[in-house]
Write a structure and sequence with these properties.
The complex is a heterodimer of chains A (317) and B (399).
Chain A (H helix, E strand, L loop, with lengths): L14 E12 L2 E12 L3 E5 L6 H9 L6 E6 L2 E3 L4 H4 L2 E4 L11 H9 L8 H7 L15 H12 L6 E5 L7 H16 L3 E6 L2 H7 L2 E6 L2 E6 L1 H6 L5 E6 L4 H8 L5 E5 L2 E6 L2 H15 L7 E3 L3 H9 L6
Parallel strand pairs in A: 3-8, 3-9, 6-7, 7-8
Antiparallel strand pairs in A: 1-2, 1-4, 4-5, 9-10, 11-13, 11-14, 12-13
Chain B lengths: L1 H16 L1 H22 L10 E7 L7 H12 L11 E4 L7 H13 L5 E5 L3 H11 L7 E5 L4 H25 L10 E5 L9 H31 L3 H5 L5 H31 L8 H24 L3 H17 L12 H7 L3 H13 L8 H22 L7
Parallel strand pairs in B: 1-2, 1-3, 4-5
Antiparallel strand pairs in B: 3-4
Helix pairs in contact in B: 1-9, 2-7, 2-9, 3-6, 7-9, 7-10, 7-11, 7-13, 9-10, 10-11, 10-13, 10-14, 13-14
The chains are: A alpha/beta (317), B alpha/beta (399).
Amino acid sequence: MTVRNCGVMGMESAALMNVLNLVKTYGEVRAVDGVSFSVPRAEVFTLLGPNGAGKTTTLEILEGIRGADSGEIEVFGRKLRRVDRATKERMGVLLQEGNFEPYLKVREVLRLFASFFRSPRSPDEVLRQIALEEKATSLVKTLSGGQKQRLAIGVALINDPELVFLDEPTTGLDPQARRNIWSIVSGLTAAGKTIILTTHYMDEAEALSQTVAIMDHGRVIARGTPRELTSGLGQETIIEFFAGERAAGATDALAGSCRGVRNEGGLVSIETDDLVATLRRLLDWSREAGVPVADMVVRQPNLEDVFLSLTGRRLRE
Amino acid sequence: MTAIFAVARTYLVTACRERETLFWFLLFPLLLLTLLALIFGNIGESGAVTYDIAIVNFDSVPGAAAAEGVVAALGSLSMAEGENQPLFRLHTPAADSDPGAFLADELEALRIGERAAVIEIPQGLSASILAAAYGGITPALAVRVHKSGGRTNSDMAAAIVEDVVAQVDRALLVKLGLYDETRAVRVDRLDLGADAGTFSYVDFVVPAIVIMGFFVVGLFGVPGTILFGRERKILRVYWVTPLDVPRYFSGFALGHLVICAMQLISVWALGQFAFGAHVALFRPLPLLVLLIASMTFLAFGFLVASLARTANGGMALANIVNMPMMFLGGLFYPLGQLPPVVRAIMMANPLTYLADALRGVTGTAAPSFPLGVSLGVPAAWIVVCAAVASWRLTWDVER
C-alpha cells in the first residue's frame, strides 16, 4: 500500500499547518498519541477514523479549545504551544458539539459572532452563502438539524477565515442536508480555503478530500490522497452479498479462488484480482447450494476497505 | 467593546424572550410588591378602632404617680369592653429588657406603619409635675408622643393619648387640690421628620423588593446562564473565537446591570404611581448602594456556578442559598424585632447590610449600621466570591 510519510515541521513548506508529535492524555488513556501531519494550503485535509480514534481531541487542540500535553503546532508560519487570539482571528471552527442560544435569531447569532472578530464579513453575505436568508429572523430553537449545522458553518465563516475546521459536519443529518453541507464545503475549496475535516463517513472523505489521514487509537496510521490509499490495496475488486446463515459455506467454497474472503454477520465480502473467475465460482456455488445472490454488489475498494485492511475492523465498529 | 456590548445584548435578549426568565426577573418583583402593598400597605390606615400603641415608661420609680396614672389609663383603654374592640393594643417592654432599645425598635415599627404612636414617659416626669404644681410653674418635662405625621390613625391615636394624659394630670392635681389649667402637664407631639409624613409600609418595602430582585437575578441568572450554557455547549463555541473570558464576563456583567436597572425602574414606577411610594432611589448614594448590591449578587451567582457541576445542581444550590438569605436579610421586617440568635445569623448576610444601607440612604428607615460597614461587608463578599469562582469555575464541559 502507498502511504505517504506523515509530514513534519519543515518538511512541507507549502503547508498551512504542521503538527508534530501531539500528545493528549486523560488519566491512563492516550487520546492523542504522538500525532504528526501537515495540512497543505487550499486543500481539504480529512482526519478519518472511527468514534474514539482521537480525531476530535486532535482538532480541539488545534482549535485552541484545549491544550496538548506535549507536541508542537505550526500554523500560518508561527510555532505555537497553544493557539492564541491572533491565530483565532484567521481560523473558523465548526465544533462537533456546539450550540447557540436557542432564543437568538439566526441573524443575531451571526452578528454576535461577527462582533468577536476585528474584520468580520457582513452577516447577510454569510446568510446567502449558507442559504439561510429565509430563516434570518427565525429563532435558533426553531431550526432543523441541517439548518442549525448550516448556521454553525456560517458562524465558522463569519471572519472569512483562511483555515476552517469542520468537525463531523454531517453527523446525524439526513442525505439531503448532508449534500447541502458538501456543496458549501466544495464552494469553500473553490474559494481557496484550507479545510481540516473530521468524519467517520468514508464516502464524505472520498467526496471532499484531497488528503486523508486515517486515525485509530490516537495515532495516524495512514495518510495520502483517497486514490493513493485505496490503490495501496492493489488491483482488487470487492464482491459483497448477504448469505445469512449460509455465509460460512460460501467462505469455505470461495476461499481458494480469491485473495481474501470474510464473513461478517452473514455478509460475505470477497476480495479478488480476477473478477470473472471469482464470479463464475460464486455463481456455481450459489446454484449448487441453492443460495440466491440477488443483492450482490461488485465495487472498487474504498477507504472503509483501507481501514479494514489496516486494523481488521470497520470504521463504524 | 463591540464584543462586550454584543454579549450584554445577547444576555438581555435571551432573558426577555424566555418566559420563565422574564417572569422571575421582571414580573415577579412587581407582583410581590403589589401583593405586599395590598395586604400590608394599609396597616393602621383602614379606620380600625384598635390602635397599636407602644409605651415606654422611663419614670417607673416608686411613687411616680403621674407616670403610673398615664400607664394605667392607657392600659384601661386596651381592655375590651363587652363586644367592643379595645381602643388600644399596648406594646410595652418586657421586664428584663432595655427600655432604650425597645423604644428604638418601636420607633422603627412606627416608621413603617406598624404602630400608630409611641409614647415615651421621661424619667422624672412625676416629680416634675409635682414640683411645678407646688411651685406654680409649668412642668419642665413632657410626655412625648411619637407619631407619624400625615397618617390619620397616628394623629388620632396621638390626640387620644393627649386627652388621656390631660385627664390623668387633672385627676392628680385635683386630688392634691392644686389644679391650675395653666400649669397642666404638656404633651409634645414629635413627628418623625419632615418627610416622615409620607412614609408607609410601601416605602419600607420598595427598597426591599429592589434588593430582592437584584438578588434573584444574580443568584439564579448567573448559574442559569453559565451552567446551562456550559452544559448545552453554547459557551464552548465562544472559546474557539478570539472572545476571551474577561470580555465575555464584562459583557455578561453589563447585561446583568441592565436587567437590574430595568427591574429598579419598574419596581420604582409601580411603587410610585400605583401605591404612592416616595422612595428617592435615583440619587448618587442610593445608586451607589444599588451598584454594589448588583455586583455582590453577580459575584454570588458566580460563586454558586463555580460550586456546582451541573446546571440542575446549580439551580438546587441557588434555591438552598436563596431561602435563608432572603428571609434572614431584614428585607421585609425590621432587624430589631427578631430573636438575638437569628439576628446574629443575619449579621453575615450581605442582604442585611444592603437593605439597611438602601433604606438609610433613601431615608425610608433609620440605618442600623454605618454606611461604611453596610457597603464594606458586601464588598468583602464580592472579593471572597470572586476569588472562589475564579479558582473553581470551569468554562467548558469537563472531559
